Amino acid sequence: MASTSETGHAKNVANFEDLISFCTGYGTSYNPSKNNIKIPQLTTLRTNATNAIQVVKTTKTAFDNTTNVRETTFANLKKLSTRIVNALEATDATKQTVDDAKTINRKIQGKRADNSKSAKTTPTTTTPTAEPTDSSISVSQQSFDSLIDGFTKLIQVVTSEPLYLPNETDVKVVTLNILLTNMKAANTNVINAATSYSNARITRNTTLYAADTGLTDIAGEVKKYVKSVFGATSPQYKQISKLKFTKPR
Predict the structure, then answer these.
(1) What is the C-alpha separation between 156 and 161, in angstroms, rounded?
(2) Is 110 exposed, middle or buried (0-12, 13-18, 19+ CB in 10 A)?
(3) Among candidates 78, 76, 80, 79, which has minimal Cα distance to 171?
(4) N or C of the chain: less Cβ packing under 10 Å?
(5) C-alpha distance from residue 57 to each of 7, 125, 152, 198 (Å)
(6) What DSSP designation does 168 have?
(7) Averaged over 223-239, what is the pLDDT?
(8) Residue 112 lies in a domain
(9) What is the DSSP string of 62-121?
(10) Do the domain assignments include residue 249?
């Protein structure tokens, strides 16, 4: 389901198309001297706005898809990290080495050093909403960056321990490094997709809502012109005055 804001963007463009249709219907009576409210310029602006909204939808889909892949890639990380620590503890590695691994694992699990239940935190992996904000994306990104950092350190600990030679394939160092590579790639893909999505939203917002040149302000200028030509009580002005153009808060 589209969010209220997405519906609002599309509604503004739809109303703008109606506005153009009405103005075109006035024939030669609609003849403004102001260039950006002439019919050809209005038509171009409508096309640009339509395209901008579509690019937001496309880049959001790409962002959602890469986010889903990242979620899947990281899904078993916490359980795996605990198994790594258990496998290390089952060797004759020094207590200091095991303690280092446990400290790193606590951070991966989202717990403070005291390991108390009240101190437990959960990294932000917010399910994508209809239109997540840049700030919510940033917070989620920091959580995944932290997980990658912690897992990298855990791998370094077991790699440096010559006694860490597990028989289970999924906790072998070579397998862990492959997973780490996949995690980094999945995370990078999300970063790139988030950038494209954010830029697309900036372009859309500029096209629709920029002061003086945005679709909503231009619509207001058109209404003023029609009002000046036909009068405030004219049927022509009544036609277009009911068309609503709103800016998101």
Answers:
(1) 9
(2) middle
(3) 80
(4) C
(5) 12, 21, 35, 11
(6) S
(7) 97
(8) yes
(9) HHHHHHHHHHHHHTTHHHHHHHHHHHHHTTT--HHHHHHHHHHHHHHHT--TT--GGG--
(10) no
Element (H, E) at 155: helix 134-159
Please write the tens of the pLDDT for every residue from 137-167.
777 777 999 999 999 999 999 999 999 999 9
Closest CA to 197 of 58, 66, 70, 68: 58
- d(C-alpha 85, C-alpha 102), whole Å: 6
- Residue 73's domain comprises 4-241
What is the rounded CA–CA span in Å between residue 6 and residue 197? Answer: 14
Residue 225, domain member (yes or no): yes
Distance CA 238, CA 222 (A): 13
Number of domains in the chain: 1
**Cα distance between residue 30 and residue 221, in whole Å:** 13
Please state the φ and ψ torsions of residue 125, each to the nearest 5 degrees: -130, 65
Confidence of residue 236 (pLDDT cuts 50, 70, 90): very high
Express each pLDDT in 95-150 by its tens digit.
Answer: 999 999 999 999 999 875 544 444 444 444 444 345 777 777 777 777 999 999 99
> How far apart (Å, rounded) are the C-alpha atoms in residues 174 and 248?
50
Torsion 142-122-147-189 (CA) sign: negative
Q: What predicted TM-score, i.e. pTM, was given to this entire model?
A: 0.83
Q: Determine contact, residues 120/191, Cβ cutoff 8 Å.
A: no
